Amino acid sequence: AQTVTQSQPEMSVQEAETVTLSCTYDTSESDYYLFWYKQPPSRQMILVIRQEAYKQQNATENRFSVNFQKAAKSFSLKISDSQLGDAAMYFCAYRTLLTSGTYKYIFGTGTRLKVLA
Amino acid sequence: EAGVTQFPSHSVIEKGQTVTLRCDPISGHDNLYWYRRVMGKEIKFLLHFVKESKQDESGMPNNRFLAERTGGTYSTLKVQPAELEDSGVYFCASSQEARTSQYFGPGTRLTVL
């Protein structure tokens, strides 16, 4: 069965600095999707970035980028030029296809990011 | 465009009572999902609707949980009777197609005393 591990329950970063959140996963599948979601306090969970496993190029979205290491099953998120609005809980997720035809997301336990002014 | 909305945002009930959570997906999204995060643990899949039909309910913990999506629009998740271990945050998500990205709501925090 697939698993997702986020080993950092909490991280802090100084405003304008760079921070990397780690995520590892376990799977026997060769083609899959990985996601990073961000949930600010009491607000919507927002899709930050998505990576398709068959694409070697790392996904980027403005200040957010990933370091996808397929062989190592690692999918870390780098936030550059951190802003106060980046403070949130960040969830790493793996998408798997069930026999029913349902795409199920498997999440890590989350990393709470604090941004210090 | 409005995102996925959930009601209520918080609910506090006594053990043995009934609670109904509501989810309104993004307009036009046929696929609706329920997930749950028990405190400190990972978010886990509960079930998936395609329109009004249950596609997969393999994650539903037991028969105290009943999900419905009459008319294929909003969905409700009823817990009856609630137990202490049902406390957590219940997330709803929707997607236009099964293989497209899921968009999540803010969650309903349920506390069972």
What does this structure look like?
The complex is a heterodimer of chains A (117) and B (113). With 117 residues, chain A is an all-beta fold. In chain A, 0% of the residues lie in helices and 54% in strands. Chain A is built from no helices and twelve strands. Chain A starts with a strand and ends with a strand. Chain B is built from no helices and eleven strands. Chain B has strands at 5-7, 10-13, 19-24, 31-37, 43-50, 53-56, 65-68, 75-79, 88-95, 103-104, 108-112. In chain B, strands 2, 4, 5, 6, 9, 10 and 11 form a seven-stranded mixed beta sheet that branches. Classes of the chains: A mainly beta (117), B mainly beta (113).
Oligomeric organization of the protein chains? heterodimer
Query: Structural class of chain A, please?
Result: mainly beta
Number of helices, counting only DSSP H or I runs of 4 residues or more of chain A: 0
Q: Give the overall form of chain B.
A: globular
Radius of gyration of chain B equals 13 Å
Mean pLDDT of chain A: 93
Pick out the low-confidence regions of chain A: none
Radius of gyration of chain A: 14 Å
User: Strand tally of chain B, please?
Assistant: 11
| Portion in beta strands of chain A | over 45%
